[in-house]
Amino acid sequence: MRDDRIDARREASRLAEPVEEAAALARKLGLDPYPVNYWIVDHDEMNELIAYGGFQRRYPHWRWGMAYDRQRKQDQFGMGKAFEIVNNDNPAHAFLQESNSLADQKAVITHVEAHADFFANNEWFGLFGDGQDRDDEHADPDAAAMLERHAETIAGYVEDPAIDRDEVERFIDAVLCLEDTIDQHRAFARADERRESDAPPDLRERLDDLDVSEDVRRHAFDEEWLDDLAESERTDARLEDPHTDVLAYLLEHGQRFDEESGKAEPFEPWQTDVLDILRTEAYYFAGQKMTKVLNEGWASFWESLMMSDEGFAADDEFVTYADHMARVLGAPGLNPYKLGKELWEFVENVTNRREVVDHLLRVEGITWRNFHDVIDFEAVESLLAPDPAVASITADSLADLDPDDPRIDAEALERARAGEVDVERYPWKVLTTAGLAERHFSLSKPQNRGFLGRIRRSELERLARYMFDDAKYDDVEAALDDVDYEAGWRRMRELRESHNDVTFIDAFLSEEFVAENDYFTYEYSRATDDFRVASDDPEDVKKKLLLQFTNFGKPTVAVYDGNFDNRNELLLGHRYNGIDLDVEQAKRVLERTYELWGRPVNLMTIVKRYDEHELEIARRRNREPTPTEVGKRIRYDGERFETHDLDPDLEERIAANDIDYDTKPDDWLN
């Protein structure tokens, strides 16, 4: 153990300079991250941290052991190496594995600085804070302290001789089955702060307002009829506006089934406490789940720029780093690092292209109609190349730099001229963000050659339509002299504040992006009993991706009624968007939900049915059969399941006319 600590201290000493310089470079690039505390851990400690979701202490439960064993086996059999883990906290905490090469460590550190910037500036993390300060939804997180408090509280219940340990663990299991059934579109709030929609006014109140006589009321409005009407209107209101935070609803209205009395009884105090704790943690981790593509893409984008474009990886480390990045971006399946990085690069390129085109359309003789005919795109790309003064900075070129140039950091330049800055190793130190933006302008990079010329006439026309000033340039060179090289990065920073994966993909996964990056959909075919490519149509690709990320890729379920059929039964509804539920898995979840309701529970869903004859014809003709969609209600009473046909009115309420991602960040963040 002592040798291990010596190794950790030695590694920490080796990484002190990269940590300091990466943080400084991140800020020079315009990022504004939380401060980061870096910790050196060994192989086993890293696996433990990953199992615990990036924190050193969590509540006692078997799930952590399962996660640890899974991670250990992945590492052991080469199915995925863990380079780092970082958590959303202020300060953020990042854990580096001491056995990593220096190139890997540098890659991780630059990656982490970008994550810390995303944590600090993305509003979804502000919405889903730990809720310690209810008056400030954007208060800095103190997640490590929160999770440690939770761990101590639940450990106390587990160790309490008056409480059965197995009962605590079983209760946690039940809550965890529903941990993603929270309201992702609203800030964290205590359950009692989030009431159901106001019930419609009772007709009795309206009769009072109308000053109806007692004689008329007695003969025309019988009390039993008024009671039935009030309940009917309350039920209709609930069905129109279902409760999307299922955990909050159960916290307010849930009960436990008491076997001795044979009826539902209020939760024990420890059960209420545990449910509240797990719901709070579900909200804390929701931000990470909702921004996986955006966050990992952001971190990969800036890591690549720092390590490759800015030379943070030394010459003798570059091949190792290239292999590192290839493994990260080359992972099979839906890779959030690759998709996210490509989307951010596309946003940068599109923004920079609009900036350049906006200036070119102001040149005398250039219009949106003749743009592609008169522009020499190779000449434009050459003119957009960074000024040699910022493109190549050496000790010999320092004397030629102008300290009054907004691209130059005058104070750093003075120190560099005095020999206090190693500009051969860190040339970025004498540049400002403006200088770095010009130095790394995306449209001047070889991999983006031709992007400017691919702009469509429709976009040119749209840009020209909204040009309200009459500023004109005599020639292309004069126009390009006024290009704002920071436009792309500034736009990226704006977008990382308000978007999550769903809204970002919805906004920016365009036809051009799909074609540029060769995206397509594949799906299971009932005709061939195998998976096959289904479409490369951009709208199909977008829809498929949005389905993957809506509600963390899990079915969306809400509470429609807590007194279904006037029998105190819980009625849940699966918001159907064309994707079937796994019915057997849904039944297991209903079993767990029963433990939190204490009375029968129901789940409404829609299932697809295939006619065997139609299916056989489809197979012969190699086409997909057309299913019949049927509404069903699955009921569980604590002992057995029943399946009932769903009332057409209820079926209509849960059948989505469109996928429920069709909303924008401003709508969600109000």
UniProtKB/TrEMBL annotation:
Pfam families: SpoVR, SpoVR_C. It comes from the Archaea. This is AbrB family transcriptional regulator. Residues 555-606 form the SpoVR-like C-terminal domain. Residues 13-354 form the SpoVR protein-like N-terminal domain. InterPro entries: Spore_V_R, SpoVR-like_C, SpoVR_N.
